[in-house]
């Protein structure tokens, strides 16, 4: 029996040695660093940017719709360009007869249409005059110069005719008692 306590003692020491050394642990890779914390302001900035982009897209969409509607309204209130340019082919007496048959609203529409067309033609005329001034005297005598001076003369004649017909509509409105001073006339 004496052997037993000794063997128990040796077994206990061996077991203690085994357990105290322990098992070798596998080395775990270092954990990936955590992303920087997202703050509330960063989230708010992202949301604001998204909303801004959405609103910008919607505004562009609505802008196109508004421009289209405004254009259609403008043409319904103004005399059509085709009608105005057709008046150029008519004599002044024909234009006076046409103006006599129109009501005040139609006359105002034609007047506004003429104002627009005259402004456009004046801009085009001025562009041609600037071109003529910009070319040399030699070029002015050449085919290019003759062509430009013919165009300038055509635009000048068209502007004169437009202004004469415009005046017919203004005179008719004045005869109806319309105060044209608020229209800059």
Number of domains: 2
| Shape designation | elongated
**Radius of gyration, Cα only, in angstroms?**
45 Å
Please report the total strand number as a whole number: 0
Mean of residue pLDDT? 77
CATH class of the largest domain: Mainly Alpha
Low-confidence stretches: 75-79
Q: Encode the helix/strand succession as letters.
A: HHHHHHH
Between the first and last Cα atoms, what is the distance in angstroms? 137 Å
Assign the CATH architecture of the largest domain: Up-down Bundle
Count of discrete alpha- or pi-helical segments spanning 4 or more residues = 7
CATH fold label of the largest domain: Methane Monooxygenase Hydroxylase, Chain G, domain 1
How much strand content do the residues show? under 5%
């Amino acid at each position: 029996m004496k052997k037993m306590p000794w063997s128990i003692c040796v077994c206990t020491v061996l077991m203690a040695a085994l357990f105290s050394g322990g098992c070798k642990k596998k080395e775990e890779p270092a954990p990936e660093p955590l992303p920087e914390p997202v703050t509330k302001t960063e989230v708010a900035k992202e949301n604001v940017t998204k909303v801004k982009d959405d609103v910008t897209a919607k505004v562009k969409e609505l802008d196109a719709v508004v421009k289209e509607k405004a254009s259609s309204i403008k043409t319904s209130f103004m005399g059509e360009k085709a009608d105005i340019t057709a008046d150029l082919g008519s004599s002044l007496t024909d234009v006076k007869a046409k103006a006599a048959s129109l009501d005040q609203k139609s006359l105002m529409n034609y007047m506004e249409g003429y104002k627009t067309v005259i402004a456009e033609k004046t801009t085009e005329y001025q562009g041609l005059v600037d071109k003529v001034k910009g070319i040399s005297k030699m070029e002015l005598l050449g085919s290019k110069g003759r062509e430009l001076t013919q165009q300038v003369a055509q635009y000048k004649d068209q502007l004169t005719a437009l202004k004469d017909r415009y005046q017919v509509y203004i005179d008719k409105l004045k005869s109806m008692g319309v105060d044209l001073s608020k229209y800059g006339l």
